[in-house]
Structure formats: C-alpha cells, structure tokens
Amino acid sequence: MMNLLRRVLLALSALVLASGAALAQTKVTIAVGGAGCLCYLPTMLAQQLGEYKKNGLDVELINFKGGSQALTAVLGGSADVVSGYFDHCVNLAAKNQPLEAFVVYDRFPGLALVVAPKQTAITSIKDLAGKKVGVSAPGSSTDFFLKYLLSKNGVDPNGVAVIGIGLEATAVAAMEQGTVDAAVMLDPAITLLQGKNKDLKILSDTRTQKDTIDVFGGEYPGGALYSRSDWITRHEKETQALTNAIVATLKWLASHSPEEVMAKMPDDVVGADKALYLAALKNTMPMYSTTGRMDPKGAEAVLAVFSQSVPEIAKAHIDLSKTYTNRFVDQANSKTGMLNR
C-alpha cells in the first residue's frame, strides 16, 4: 500500500513539474521602430492575439521613435529582436555587422513622401532642394527612402535638411505646424493628414504593389523581424517561436476584416478618430504578407536601391543570402499549410 501511495505521489509531482514547465515563458524583448505605425501592426497584433504566449514566449515590446533607434537597442544588447525594415540588414552588412531577417510581414514599404499642407511652392521632388524634410529618425528607413528619391531625381541629399519627427502624432503636428516642408510618412499618419487636408500633395507613394513597382522597379520588402546573426544561432528555439507567432498572425489578418482587426488593437494605438484609423487600415491591409517569406527578388531590389544611393554598399560586395533566411518561415508554414504569396 505504501509503495502504491509513493508511486501515486511521485506521478503527481511529475505532473505538477511538467505543468509548470509547460507554463514557463521564455522572455524575449522586441524593439519596435514606431508601434503606432500600421507597417508594424503584425508585431503588435500578435501580442493582442496571444500568439507569442501560445508559442511559449513572454514578449516585451519596446517602442522607439524610429527604426534606427530600435536597431541601436539590439546592437547594444538592450533588446533581442528588431521589428523594423529589412533594408537595415543590407545597410549593416556593408559595415560587417551581420543582421538577419527571419520573417517578413510587409510586402511593400508603405512609405510616402508628402508635402506639408501650408507649403504650396513644392510640386516635385526637385523642389525639395534646400528645404527641411522630416523623417522618423535620421538613419531610419524613412531617411534611406528620402535619400534614394533625392538622388534618383538629381537632388543632392546633402543639400536637404533632414529632421527627425517620428511617425505618429508628432509627425502630423510637424507637418501641420510647418516645422518641415515635407516628410516621409506612413499610415495611419498619412490618412489622418489627408482627412484634414483634402488637397494634400503626395510626391511619391509605396502603399500599393503598383506604386512600389513604379518607384523601385519591383516589389520591395518592408517590415520584418530581424536580429544579430549570432543571437539567432544561439536562440533558434525562440526565433522559431517568434516566427510561428507572426505567421499565425498573418494568417489571422488574411481571414479577418479591417473592422475586426481594429477591434483587437489597443485604444491608445487606434486613437480618438476611429473612422480615420479604419480608413488607413483599409489602405494598408494589402501590404501585409500572408506567408512571412522573403522574396529573393525583393531582397535584390533593396540592394540595388541602396547601391545607387550609398557608395559604400555598392563597393561592399554584400552576400544577400546572409541578410535573411526563410527556413523558420518554411517550418512555420509547413504546420499551417499556408500558400505562398
């Protein structure tokens, strides 16, 4: 009888320990380059849907003014992963700082070069010479986009004053107050500004596939989760779990309406004007990937664009295969049966 009781107690103890292990969550910190920007919505939505926890992760999302600041946090070791634009992986590869994107959630960048409402003299990109132009933060993808457009249109990037204005309410305020003459913006800020200024002038837009191809000559990947290559090597389990969470979120996004998506987002992200947020979300929905895979041609387009505007990158002979991987996404998709897109 005592032996039976002992066996039962041991079995119960093992069950308790196993349950505790199952409930244990691995802590991962993600630096986001502007949490209110719809370009990063999949990262935020995964938290709201509980996808990180489902995959055994306790994820802390830290919001930064722009992608360059989020990147600095990861390079400095105060965050594990960046939710930001893939182009940083290409840019840093030229400086021998290996970064690797492991799940891509934006098929296009969603960036637009917008003229400030009070500025009537600017009708083309060439008119930006000598002007003040806002970006989320110097060194961010918005800054790269601006420099590419200026160079493409024969304007010396050094002849334009670049000012960091963030991506959300601060960007809208800077444009309305005339702090800058133009700015590179993303939704929902673009749609919010358009809602107040019906004749808003947009000089370049990459919010749709057609617009992106017109600007870059092909599809150009935007937001992704990426980290230092050595972190990924040492944390393959966590990397796979993050990828699983984002892929599941992309699948959820593809099967729900903008109204249903908005209902999942925190009130402080949606803001007071829900109608304008919903309009911006409807504009943005086609931008999201349904698989999370990197299109190799898209990565090549990023390198080609940077090579045109950044001489150091053109000379660096970058091995693109080291700036991204699809193996975690393919593993995640093999479980969900998602089709490529």
Identify the CATH homologous superfamily of the largest domain: Periplasmic binding protein-like II
Tell me the overall shape: globular
Helical residues, percent: 40-55%
CATH architecture of the largest domain: 3-Layer(aba) Sandwich
CATH class of the largest domain: Alpha Beta
Radius of gyration, in Å, reads: 22 Å
Class based on secondary structure composition and strand pairing: alpha/beta
Which consecutive residue ranges, at least 5 long each, have pLDDT under 50? Answer: 12-23
Q: What is the number of helices?
A: 17
CATH level-3 fold name of the largest domain: D-Maltodextrin-Binding Protein, domain 2
SSE order, one letter for each helix or strand: HEHHEHEHEEEHEHEHEHEHHHHHHHH
Strand order of the largest sheet: 2-1-3-10-4
Total number of strands: 10
Mean pLDDT: 90
How many domains? 2
